[in-house]
Amino acid sequence: MPRSNRIRFSPRAPSASRRQFLGAAGAGMLATILPGCGSDHSDSQPYPQTVAMGQQAIQQAISDPANPVAAISVAMLKGGNVFWQQAFGVSSVPSQTKATNQTRFNIGSVSKLFAALAAAILQDRGLITLDTPIVRYLPTFTMLSPEYAQITTRHLLSHSSGLPGTNSRNLFTFAPVPGYAADTQAELANTHLKHLPGELAVYCNDGFTMVEQIVLAMTGQSFASFVEANILAPLKMTNSSYLTAVPNEGSFSYPFENGTQYQEFVNAYATGGLSSTPGDMMNLAQMIIGGGMFQGQRVVSAAGIAQMGVDQSAGLLINPSPEWRWGLGWDSVQQPALQAAGILGWEKDGGTAFYSSEFFVVPQAQLALMVTGNSGYDARKLAESLVLSALKEDGTIASLPAKVSTTPPPAASAPGIANAGGIYGNSDSPLQVIANPDGSLQLNQWNGPARAWKQVGAYQYRSDGWWWSNTDTASYRFMVVSGTDSEGNAFTYRYVMKRVVPGAGYAYLTLPIGQQLAPLTPPDAAWQQRIGTQWTLTNDSPTAVPIVILGNPPAYLTTLTELPGYVLYGNEDLRYQLFVPLADDRGGMSVKVPGNFGRDLYEIRFGSSSSTTLTLGSSIYDKA
After folding, report:
1. What is the rounded CA–CA span in Å between residue 367 and residue 418?
2. 359: closest CA among 292, 306, 283?
3. CA-to-CA distance for 152 and 42, rounded, in angstroms?
4. How far apart are CA 624 and CA 81, in angstroms?
5. Cβ-based neighbour number of residue 612 at 10 Å
6. What is the pLDDT of residue 366?
7. Mean pLDDT of the residues in the chain
């Protein structure tokens, strides 16, 4: 599940940051728009209440004067019947071109399902097995941590490989940039794992990008060509493709930012690069519900479809969030809101720099939904509301589940939390926990642009075991995870946990949002002379979205007086990460945070102690 939506569960302010991949995508500053609607082409309407509710909610989203959404498109399926398909708003803001059912949207990480299907097809053909180390198929794949040789395709597809996260270079661009997957593999050769394979699951885009390399190695076809021939064509998804070149046909939704219209290209094809329509995605849903069959043709084995829906989190060594039920490609194979209603559902959401999507399949009810649109609306809330409404309308459930409370329960005597104070690292920006003598706690977050701490809130302990404030619907507590890893090393990690109520409000989601870090020996002279320096990205394409929209803001190196021994690096685009100096020329990753707040970590490298160039992943920066 992604962070805002992504993960979608702790939304950030809209931006075109490459870090928004998978969820809380940048909404863009849309001009005033006149909503338009594509027609509903279904011959019958078995869910009139659900459709009416959805139409009203979408119309409100695209007409919201405070945050208008240019276009939203939706389709719902029951059995073999697409009973609702409709597009709202405009695909082009300047021309006010109405969106139609054929208008294509970049569906972001919903594309990961096609990587999982591709792997299942390769296994069906005897070309791979999910539990064989990928070095057997990719002998050129290497990393600095020797345990890289244990990574399997199952690890890649379930976010448990230990790869650092996301190759940020040329991820989102306004012109196609080839070679992203090869660039990612080359980058990984110069970095360590952030955790042992299978130790924990943390959202990882690069795992799916490596599936591209496996498909190429085992078939001789590019990933895009393989999926188009073996999945899209059999499923008759004629309005779906990977934007490997500037398209000369098809209808697309276009981002509109700062008075300019663009076409967005997502160069990480397997992890987020498909352009599609909700109608086409209903063909995929029919195949999934049919156990790999579509209109009498087998696309993938029933065993492959079933395996995608198996909970992959059961064997994880570190898993402090019980609601996370990763599948292969799926964010959740026990969708929390549906689980609250006693229904098994599978969910995948997706976000790019400009679009937000949700895809639900409820296998036993033979129900599916796809909603996609320009960012700025709550796709998860809409999707959960529509699917649960349909299940109630057709009698699958007698009533909607009760919504969970965001009202603080009565105060209670607080346990001792002195040991919980300090600095917590993550992939977003550090947190500071201050344990007050009266049992309350204060939570601060690093404000990167201001280079100072900003108070999140003050919290009191409550009878449900969580710390609450009267102004925040989220609640917090601490969790310590201890054990012995697969290499025989003992570990103990303390996490600050955040509990939120995402989507339509039917279930809690518990997230580790930071790992407590212990002070270290202050950095040596080589690192000290870098403190206070600024760095500018040099090797992104000039068409990269952050370059065009954000203006390539410099990143900076600094330290936190509250946490000696670490170096903080980042900017608005990258966010703010704490590095551990490993040598004069290298800084390493400092945290193991499952879920989404440990995603997209990097190592930082310098050519020498006095170098004016640094490398972060595959991105190169010069001293400003």
Report:
1. 50
2. 283
3. 43
4. 58
5. 13
6. 97
7. 92
